[in-house]
Automatic annotation (TrEMBL):
UniProt xrefs under CDD domains: GH43_CoXyl43_like (cd18619)
Site, Important for catalytic activity, responsible for pKa modulation of the active site Glu and correct orientation of both the proton donor and substrate: residue positions: D152
Alphabetical list of InterPro entries matching this protein: Glyco_hydro_43, Glyco_hydro_beta-prop_sf, Glycosyl_Hydrlase_43_Enz
Record Pfam families: Glyco_hydro_43
Organism field: Altericroceibacterium indicum
Family statement drawn from the similarity comment of this UniProt entry: Belongs to the glycosyl hydrolase 43 family.
UniProt-recorded Gene Ontology molecular function terms: hydrolase activity, hydrolyzing O-glycosyl compounds
Claim: Hydrolase is one of the keywords in the record: yes
Protein name listed in UniProt: Family 43 glycosylhydrolase
Amino acid sequence: EKASEPAASETAATDSSKFLSQPLVTEIFTADPSAHVFDGKLYIYPSHDIDAGIPDDDLGNQYAMRDYRVLEMDKPGGKVTIGPVALDVDDVPWAEKSMWAPDAAYKNGTYYLYFPAKDKDGVFHIGVATSKDPMGPFKADPEPIAGSYSIDPAVFTDTDNESYMYFGGIWGGQLQRWHTGKYDESAGETDLKQDDKPALMPKVAKMSADMKSFASPPQDVEILDQNGKPVLGGDHEKRFFEAAWMYKRNGKYYFTYSTGDTHFLNYAIGDSPMGPFTYAGHILKPVQGWTSHHSIVDWDGKTWLFYHDTQLSGKNHLRNVKMTELTFNPDGTIQEIDPFKH
Ligand code: FUB
């Protein structure tokens, strides 16, 4: 009888939940994890998901977040500390609601929190708030960053100390409404519906030395296919949707993003932080839940992917952040992760 029992390792292999990364915190719902290493410690700047009782729609009104809380970790696999409220929408003079995916940066003794929110007219802009402590509390500037719009700011500081903000998101993120450079509500609620034309591209702007304004107007982040042609609007498995993140490795710039309605995390590689970038593949297959949003950071000798899914709630708008190791092939390409096997 003993011989017919499966070995312990075989039993484990059939139970995929044993291989899932586990939520980093369970006390609150968190999403869109932007991870940074400051002074050797890891800080995560996530969205703080709440249930506001708003039904799901394609504009994401169910993502009705109102504040931010920072997570801190001493070592991979170590205890995760949940900070107090770092910034509340009531303390942002220009913002009314929808405190979506934030990011943070550090320069010259100051920590900067960047966040998208809707103003009183329901239009997304990007705000900035500062603190002397990476956990906050942060004090918001009275106005959004001049010339900013749409969602999902990601600020990358290069080895020459220049910083860049990547941003944008279509559908509920409103990027399609800025296709002329001015807000145009008639552009609708999804994309420009031009499947055989270049897709709407994310934006990048160099930051001024004060880290609170753009040094130059935002420009397109060009994502090209293997033939050097822009990825098309109809190519939903490749085109940019939201969740920009820049990661630099061996002198190459990896522009990474979510494909939204096809639920992949993708990457495209370039030689400059301003692009262009050539599409290179998927990083993460679809997770449980509609959205996928991530960051990539080197820490403790490894490269980590921070991402989220809905393991704790089973609901799209109540997410939990996770981390898992990212592995590169010798040619610099990324080994695609199946979230149900990690
Ligand atoms: O968390 C709200 C929105 O959902 C984010 O801004 C998007 O990237 C998506 O994750």
